[in-house]
Amino acid sequence: MFFLKELEKTIQLHPSYFGPLIRSHIHKELLQKEEGSSTGKYTIVCILDSFDITDGQVMPGSGSAEYTVHYKAIVWRPYKGEVMDGIVTSILPSGFFVDCGSLQAFIGRGMIPSDIKFEGNAAPPQWTDGADQVIEKGTNIRIKIKGIRSEVDKMFAVGTMKEVGAALVSSLRCFSSLTFHRITSAPCHRSLAKMPMIIWTRMEVRSGLQQSSLGRYHPCVRR
Predict the structure, then answer these.
(1) Residue 59: alpha-carbon gap to chain centroid
(2) Interstrand relation of 65-76 and 2-13 (parallel, antiparallel or unpaired)
(3) Are 41 and 106 within one domain?
(4) Does 152 map to a domain?
(5) Which segments constitute the S1 motif domain (predicted)?
């Protein structure tokens, strides 16, 4: 699920960047370091605005200056019970791994429908029911998250196919970028190349943030 979140980041600049364009250098450094990065709990998808930059403090011994930048960003955070689409990246006799953006999920043997069996002699190895359902590397698949484990800069999950209606999704394609729009239709100006997303073929999916009467933001999807 996508959220609008206020964050802060400490940026260090070399003395060679000091001058009238220093704010531009700070913004560029912020985008390069933060967009597409993961904290282990959420992924920073797109930085919308840097609204406060503190005065720089010179670091003793190096001459570099340190700035604290407060900014707003769209972040993506998966939840237990959430249904999402992904791409199979690895096939094992015990199950298979699925990449859902910045989240890697494992689907174990017990979470795969009983009519789908592992076929190790196939080329490439696959899970199949012997008919039209084939799960191999590169297959687009829909799963439900059963549990999430977070580390410093990564997210891992276990998922299931049993609780999802149509687990194999042949009409999906992977996009390396996704355009976000606020409810005011102001476009986000950065591509999301570091976070591939899955969207329906022939369907334009735009995510935005709608402001409620209480002034809080909640995610919304326009199609």
Answers:
(1) 34
(2) antiparallel
(3) no
(4) yes
(5) 81-161
Q: Which of 170, 59, 155 is nearest to 105 (CA)?
A: 155
| Chain-centroid distance, C-alpha 221 | 16
Q: How far is CA 215 from the centre of its chain?
A: 25
- What distance in Å separates the CA atoms of residue 105 and residue 145, rounded to the nearest whole number? 8
CA distance 96 to 116: 12
Alpha-carbon gap, residue 124 to 105, rounded angstroms: 20
Please give the pLDDT value at position 168. Answer: 59
pLDDT of residue 173: 41
- pTM reported for the whole predicted model: 0.64
- The pLDDT tens digits of the residues spanning 108-137 come to 999 998 889 999 888 889 999 888 889 999
Tokens of 164: 């999802």
In a domain, 24, yes or no: yes
Beta strands, E only, the chain: 2-13, 43-53, 57-58, 65-76, 83-92, 95-100, 103-108, 117-119, 126-128, 134-135, 140-150, 155-160, 172-175, 197-200, 206-211, 217-222
